[in-house]
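queue> pop job 88
queue> type: inverse folding (structure -> sequence)
queue> payload:
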């Protein structure tokens, strides 16, 4: 026998659910497959509604997102107690994420220029466009990490700061000289 007899008769299943404790019922709710066992799932939902139970679902910011800055910071108890500390940590975290992401995106460009040099205006122009792309990568990484509100301009500043590090390097001078070369 695949399953007990009461599983196939929905009336018997409803009666059985009435005798479950609240914890057992919530456990069934979280472990039943809503698509495969649709009727049974609806029976469990009806019993939960009848008892007035609302299962608590853990807060998940966005599906597929592993790093979400507000959730990380709210997990730190000492930051939750003070809004000022939380705000400063949030803004600095956004700055750091944008800064690091931009530098990591600029790393292949800096390695290419250091190893091969810049040959011609077209390549120099492409490298400049890639530097702008790296700036966007840093800003977008901060946005995807959950940086919003007043901390977002600071994240843009972090990405710009990383780009400024590249602009002040000797590698950018090589790039600029290749752009200004006479034809």
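queue> result:
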């Amino acid at each position: 026998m695949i399953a007990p007899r009461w599983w196939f008769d929905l009336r018997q299943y409803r009666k059985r659910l009435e005798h479950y404790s609240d914890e057992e019922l919530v456990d069934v709710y979280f472990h039943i497959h809503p698509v495969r066992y649709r009727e049974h799932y609806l029976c469990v939902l009806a019993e939960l509604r009848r008892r007035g139970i609302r299962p608590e679902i853990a807060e998940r910011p966005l599906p597929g997102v592993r790093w979400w800055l507000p959730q990380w910071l709210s997990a730190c108890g000492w930051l939750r107690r003070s809004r000022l500390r939380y705000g400063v940590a949030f803004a600095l975290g956004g700055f750091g994420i944008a800064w690091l992401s931009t530098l990591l995106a600029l790393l292949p460009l800096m390695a290419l220029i250091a190893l091969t040099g810049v040959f011609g205006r077209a390549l120099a122009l492409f490298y400049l466009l890639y530097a702008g792309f790296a700036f966007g990568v840093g800003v977008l990484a901060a946005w995807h990490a959950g940086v919003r509100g007043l901390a977002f301009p600071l994240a843009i500043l972090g990405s710009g700061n990383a780009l400024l590090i590249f602009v002040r390097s000797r590698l950018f001078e090589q790039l600029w000289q290749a752009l200004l070369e006479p034809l």
